[in-house]
């Protein structure tokens, strides 16, 4: 039996590499799709997180696949303030995206977004996510242009 790394009979090493890079490209595209869906938080996140975990935690790319912008955080905050999502869901949203190598914050507001995001993801360290505390976070985001 040939070693596991040997190409199948009739398959050139180049074709084998092309198929492998095609698979990697599909995985990278799907990872980006999942991350964008998580940022939008329009679907239940559990199935997305399960699929994302199957792709592995480590991101070996040179640049992140998704950039979170101020408008993304404001949109989720508004959903919380409007009663569309709970404090637990708001925290879950941030926890799912926090400290990922394949996700970055917009460079223009990176420190501000990182700080607000951390506070949303860790209410047990900072303060509970209430209408008042999240309204203050919204004001902070809007006042720092």
Describe the structure.
With 145 residues, this protein is mainly alpha-helical. The protein has a two-stranded parallel sheet. The N and C termini lie far apart (64 Å). α4 packs across α5 and α5 packs antiparallel against α6. The N terminus is likely disordered. The radius of gyration is 20 Å and the shape is globular. The protein has one domain.
Low-confidence spans = 1-19
Q: How far do the termini sit from each other?
A: 64 Å
Task: Please tell me what the overall shape is.
Answer: globular
The averaged pLDDT comes out at 83
Total E-strand runs: 2
Helix content: 55-70%
Cα gyration radius (Å)? 20 Å
**What composes the largest sheet?**
2 strands, parallel
Alpha plus pi helix count: 6
Helices and strands, in order, run as HHEHHEHH
Q: Strands of the biggest beta sheet: in what spatial order?
A: 1-2
How are the elements arranged and paired?
Blueprint: H1 13-40, H2 45-54, E1 66-68, H3 70-81, H4 87-97, E2 103-105, H5 110-121, H6 131-143
Parallel strand pairs: 1-2
Helix pairs in contact: 1-2, 3-6, 4-5, 5-6
What keywords describe this structure?
145 residues; mainly alpha; disordered N terminus
């Amino acid at each position: 039996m040939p070693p596991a790394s040997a190409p199948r009979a009739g398959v050139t090493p180049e074709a084998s590499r092309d198929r492998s890079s095609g698979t990697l490209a599909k995985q990278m595209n799907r990872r980006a799709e999942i991350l964008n869906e998580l940022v939008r938080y329009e679907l239940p996140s559990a199935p997305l997180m399960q699929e994302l975990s199957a792709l592995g935690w480590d991101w070996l790319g040179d640049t992140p696949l998704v950039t979170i912008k101020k408008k993304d955080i404001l949109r989720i905050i508004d959903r919380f303030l409007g009663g569309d999502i709970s404090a637990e869901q708001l925290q879950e949203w941030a926890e799912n995206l926090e400290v990922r190598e394949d996700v970055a914050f917009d460079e223009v507001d990176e420190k501000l977004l990182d700080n607000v995001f951390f506070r949303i993801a860790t209410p047990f360290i900072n303060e509970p996510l209430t209408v008042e505390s999240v309204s203050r976070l919204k004001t902070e985001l809007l006042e720092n242009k």
